[in-house]
Amino acid sequence: MRDWIYPTLVFVVFLYAMAFVLFYTYKGASGYSGGGKSGGTTTVEDFQSEMNKKL
C-alpha cells in the first residue's frame, strides 16, 4: 500500500503546480495589452521611427 501513496501524492502536487502555472500564465497573457496600439499592425516606418526615438 505504501508503494503507491508517495508517488500519487507527488503526482497530485505536480498537477496542482502545473494548474497554478497555467492559470497565472493565461491570466497574465490576457491582461497584457502590448504597450502600444492594440489590434493594429505595425508598419516598417512606425518601427523605424520608434527605434530612432529610442536611440
Top keywords for this entry?
0% strand, mainly alpha, single chain, 55 residues
What can be said about this structure in brief?
The protein is mainly alpha-helical. The protein has two helices and no strands.
Describe the fold and architecture.
The chain is mainly α and 55 residues long. Helices cover 75% and strands 0% of the residues. The protein is built from 2 helices and no strands. The protein has helices spanning 2-31, 44-54. The longest helix has 30 residues, at 2-31. The protein is rod-shaped and about 65 Å long. The model has no long low-confidence stretch (mean pLDDT 80).
Gross morphology: rod-shaped
Total helical elements: 2
Strand content: under 5%
- The secondary-structure element order is HH
Low-confidence residue ranges: none
Distance between the amino and carboxyl termini: 66 Å
The count of β-strands is: 0
- Radius of gyration in whole Å, from Cα? 22 Å
Determine the mean pLDDT: 80
Helix content: over 70%
Largest sheet data: none
Structural class: mainly alpha
SSE topology:
Blueprint: H1 2-31, H2 44-54
